[in-house]
Amino acid sequence: MKQNLIAALALGLFLSPSLAGAQQQAQEPKYVVKPLAEKKVSELPAGELFWRVENFATGAQAQAAMGPNSLVAESRGKVWLFTLGPAGQVSAGGTKVAEIGPIPKVEASQYLLRINEAGGPPGTKTPVHTHPGPEAFYVLAGETSQKTPHGVNRVGAGQSMVGHGDTPMEVWSSGSTKTQSLVMFVVDATKPFSSPAKFD
User: What's the pTM?
Assistant: First the structure.
């Protein structure tokens, strides 16, 4: 019995550091990206394109105001309508929050429009990656930064920025509080949405 107890204690001492390490790793804060809405379209509107970001009182009202290049999503207790189109337009019943653009053009036989929610505690970041088309950010809280070969851009709550397509990038929470952003994509639907990359 005594030998069994000694063996059990020895095994516990042997396993404890590994278990502690695993628990610590599981609790390590991360930059989290979550898809909210997406659709595929065969063509984009002509001319310069902007993302129009609007709030609606209900999901039904937002759905009723949707166009062929619109997406509805819910985030932070609000209903959002995202519409890709010309500048200066408004949707009936909506409250315009931002107009982001112009969005760089991408040529494809089919396009994927996607809205992601992204963010995390200060210092958390994405791996370096690329998308087959441009992305745009609207920051809801905190501060978001994006590094590309073109430099580093920082945007705070209530601000927006247009990113680059087919360009290595790293995105991170750069403020003193948790960041949360809505991220809008217009990408080539025939290619992988995201691919690992590195800076030269």
Answer: 0.85
- Give me the residues paired with residue 181 across strands: 118, 139
**Could you read off the pLDDT tens digit of each residue along the chain, which spans 200 residues?**
445 444 443 434 344 444 445 555 557 899 999 999 999 999 999 999 999 999 999 999 999 999 999 999 999 999 999 999 999 999 999 999 999 999 999 999 999 999 999 999 999 999 999 999 999 999 999 999 999 999 999 999 999 999 888 999 999 999 999 999 999 999 999 999 999 999 98
In the three-class reduction of DSSP (H, G, I as helix; E, B as strand; rest coil), residue 18 is classed as helix
Contact 188, 108 (CB under 8 A): yes
Sign of CA dihedral 130, 131, 134, 140: negative
CATH 3.30.390.30, applies to 31-196: no
